[in-house]
Amino acid sequence: MTAQRYQFIASASLIALIFLCLGWELWWAPLRPGGSWLVLKAVLLLAPLFGILRGKRYTYKWMSLFIQFYLLEGLVRATSEQGVAQWLAIGETVLAAILFVSVILFIRATRGPQMKKAASAS
After folding, report:
1. How far apart are CA 86 and CA 122, in angstroms?
2. Against a cut of 0.85, is the pTM above it?
3. Where would I find the H helices in 24-56?
């Protein structure tokens, strides 16, 4: 697959994750009725959005580390929550995993010729 395809998958999963986090913490299963402060986790995902959409390699690099917090939260809440919140946590885990893999594959697909030569020599 090409870097453009990985960029599309990363962009789509990031946007879906933003909407999932907003819906989860505001309407579908908030920790407190009427919403909770955990909605700020969706706001934090806005920081890398434009870099991911534009294919900025540096954004993809730090996003590969940043997304692991969402993967961890999804796993923890998927095993500790019940009902709708548990399904939303599973959705968060799946989207974060898809985003992580697509980000890593984008980074590999866009590395320069010097990096590819060094990787094949070792």
Report:
1. 44
2. yes
3. 40-44, 49-54
Reference 92, options 37, 50, 49, 41; nearest CA is 41
**Tens digits of residue pLDDT in 13-66:** 999 999 999 999 999 999 888 778 888 999 999 999 999 999 999 999 999 999
C-alpha count within 13 angstroms, C-beta hemisphere, residue 1 = 13
Structurally, how many domains does the chain consist of? 1
Answer yes or no: is 122 within a domain: no
In-domain check, residue 13: yes
Decide if 106 is inside a domain.
yes
In terms of residues, how long is the chain? 122
Tokens encoding 95: 């989207």
Domain that holds residue 49: 3-117
